[in-house]
Structures are given as C-alpha cells and as structure tokens.
From TrEMBL:
UniProt domain FAD/NAD(P)-binding: residue ranges: 6-297
Required cofactor names: FAD
Domain BFD-like [2Fe-2S]-binding: 423-470
Name recorded for this polypeptide: Nitrite reductase (NAD(P)H) large subunit
GO MF, one example: nitrite reductase [NAD(P)H] activity
Organism the protein comes from: Carbonactinospora thermoautotrophica
Keywords, ordered alphabetically: FAD, Flavoprotein, Oxidoreductase
Domain NADH-rubredoxin oxidoreductase C-terminal: 319-377
InterPro entries: BFD-like_2Fe2S-bd_dom (IPR007419), BFD-like_2Fe2S-bd_dom_sf (IPR041854), FAD-bd_OxRdtase (IPR050260), FAD/NAD-bd_sf (IPR036188), FAD/NAD-binding_dom (IPR023753), FAD/NAD-linked_Rdtase_dimer_sf (IPR016156), Rubredoxin_C (IPR041575)
EC number(s) from the headed UniProt entry: 1.7.1.4
Broad enzyme group: oxidoreductase
Amino acid sequence: MTAVNRVVVVGYGMAGARLARELRARARDLRIIVFGAERYPAYNRVLLSSVLAGKADEGDIALAEPTSRVELRTGVTVTAIDPADRTVTTDDGTVTRYDALVLATGSRAWIPPVDGLDPAALPEGVAVFRTLEDCRRILRAAEGARRAVVLGGGLLGLEAARGLALRGLRVEVLHAMGHLMERQLDPGASRVLTRTLRGLGVSVRLNALTEAVLCDQGRVRAVRLAGGEVVEADLLVVACGVRPETALAEAAGLKVDRGVVVDDQLRTCDPAIYAIGDCAEHDGTVYGLVAPAWEQARVVADVITGADPRARYAGSRVVTRLKATGVDLAAMGDTQVEEDEEHEVLQFVDPTRGTYKKVVIRDDRLVGAILLGENATVGTVTQLFDRSAPVPVDRRALLFADLRGQAARTVESPVQIPDRTTICQCNSVTKSAITKSWLAGARSVEDVIKETRATTGCGGCRDTVEGIVEWLAASDPQTTGSCS
C-alpha cells in the first residue's frame, strides 16, 4: 500500500469530525485537512430535537474538536474532485492535493413534489429539520406561531413535533403512510404511540397525502390534503426523510446507487477515495444513523494509517431510539414478523399506560424488538440483540422487570464485562473509562456522562451505563451519592 501523508476529509459533520479524531489518534505526523460546508464547528445532530424543545442550548450539543494539527476549513464547500490528479477544488477556487480522500458529505432533507414547495426557496414559515440552521429557522418561525403542522411521521418528524408542542404550539403530524415510523414499528406499536403523543399535545393524522402548501404573500397559511381538506398552519416543518448527498461523488465518476457504493474497507471504486456515514452505501444498505458512521470511521482510520490494514466493516446492528420528551421508545431489527414456524413472538400491550412490548426470536436469538413506554428491560434486550446472545429460557424476562434477573444471567453483568469493552460505541467509551470517572468522583449517571461523553451519541448505551453506575454504587462502600 502506498504511504499516505495527506488525508482530505469532505464533510465536517458527526462522521467527518469523528474520522479526524480517529486519524490523529493513530498517526501524529499525518496531515489532515477537513472541509465543512457549514460555518460552525461540528455538533451532535442527534440532539437537535433537544434544542428545538428548549431542553438544550447550542453549546450543549457541540462535539469535541479534533486534537491539534488538524486543518479545519469551515464554511468552505468542495465543488469538484479530480481522481486522476488526486485533488479537490473548493468554492473559493482553492485546489488541494490528497493521498487519501474520505467523503463524509452526509445527506440532505428530501422535499416531496408538492405544489407550493420549492426546494430552492421555501416559503416563509416553512422549514426542513436537518441542520442547526434549520433548527434556528424553525425556532424563529415558532415565535409568532400558534399552530404547527409537521409533514412526516418518522423519527425526525415526531421529534420535531414533540419539541414544538413543548414550546406551547398546537401541533398536528400529517403522515402519508398507514402507521407511524413504518420502518421501525408495526401497526400495533403505532396505535399506542399515536395515543401517547395525543396525550402530549401532538395529534396525528395517518394516510394523509399532502396535495399543496397554501401561502399568503409568501408565507405559509395552510396545507391542502388530497380530497380537498385544508389544515391551517402558521408553521410547517417538512420531515419526509433524507437522501444521501452523492452529487460530488457522481460527478467524479464514482459508483453511486442509493449512496456512494463502498466495499468492506469503505473504499469506493477508486482505491484512494473512501466514503463513510449517511452518504455511504455498504452491502446495499445506507444506514443514516450515528453509530454505524462512527464504526465506519474507525475502520477507515485503521486502513488509511496502517494501524490495521486488514480492518473490515461488517455492517451494523442498529437500535433506533426516539428522542422525544415523554416518549420512551427503542426499536431494533425485524419488528414486522408475526408468529410462524421459524419465529417466536412475545407481546404485551397496555394502551392506557402507553406500553407496547414485542420481541421476535429465531433460533434462540433475538432478531427484533419494540419497547415503548415502561421498558425496564431495554438494556438487557439491547445487549442480547447487539451481541446475538442466546435469550433466557423464560422469555417473559425480556418483557418484565421483575423477571429480568433471569435475562441478566444470559447477558454479562457489569462485574463480568472486561474493562477494555467499549460500552458507548459512538464515543469509544470503555467500561474502564466509566469506572475511572467514578473513582475520580463522578457519583451519578449524569456526572459520568459529563466526564466521559458516554450516551451523548445515539443514546442506545444509556441503560448499560446506568447498570454499571448502579453496580459501582452498590459495590463501593464509600458511596454517599445517588446513582439516579
């Protein structure tokens, strides 16, 4: 492999920023140049809903800057790649050479083909929900609004809706499909979630196909549905999904399908160019989530620096968490399966309490789960799914807290987890780091999070972190603080 002395990273979002840190950690003398189209430093896009809800400030979601000797060029857009000369050109005319190029261009919000919605010039009071600037636009529009409409009942749409409801707006979600979050939930879970949201000030209308956005003097005033019904809106948030940002790669002659096609080392068809994160398509899958992007960043850093030239990315087992105040939801794997000869399906539903639990088992392994509402077993279920470990003989232990001790015997307890085990994959926080923060004086989950940044990525490891802190509190006779 040709020696790499200069790496150019296109994109300074969560994937690009993480890659810069991973590269620097492995190679002190490597020259790293990162281009970011957004003007501000990298931030945790997952937590934008917390900013929208007023639960966090912009400073709270800033990501740690890469260590020294990383050249950051924010507010600069890469406009062209020349694979033959191994250079990139930016919108200010600068040409930069690379030995290895990594595309971390992310994704863009998709605007549906609806009358009155011009992607190049959205009407006043209309915004997508993808970037920090989008969040600012929504908050400005919300100041004088009373009624908000959100197009899209997926993850981002529901997080935006709940955030606006917390700011006192009357919120209605219009979803074109027959149930919410159809990629992650089954219809039963959607019904319970719809009822829960209604109690939190968010009404939901399903099978609602938007026909037109109606404006008055350039400002949104209503949405017209197929069939003619008009829904008034002072604020309209379009959350209809995203599309990988592949234009730069396509113009450079790289293979593009749904995303930029990469192999198990995240290489494109050009061996000097890699792609990670939302823009990358690996083995037919575009993940669009944080944890896979950061797993990919580690592999690329190993390969480029030679720390592990044989490193491979084998795909990710994804756990989706809905980050909306008052809603506790985790979904993973294949959740649409019904009981058959190959699958066991356990369910418990209590709509009044907003509880819906479903686990899908095949060959004594957990292959899918939905945990909505009271979900004290979510840590155990997540570990079983992530590690593809055998499920307990008494399957009820996966659903009910008073039986979870039986499931815990299947999953490693904190004392059995080796110190080197990575607990927070997003931030590479090991069990040892959590223990050290505890010994240094962090006496609560929130203190540990502040010291280690565990759980601040996708949030899927929070239950495991809480379990370790509870174990430390129980085993440390000097403890006087709370682990809540």
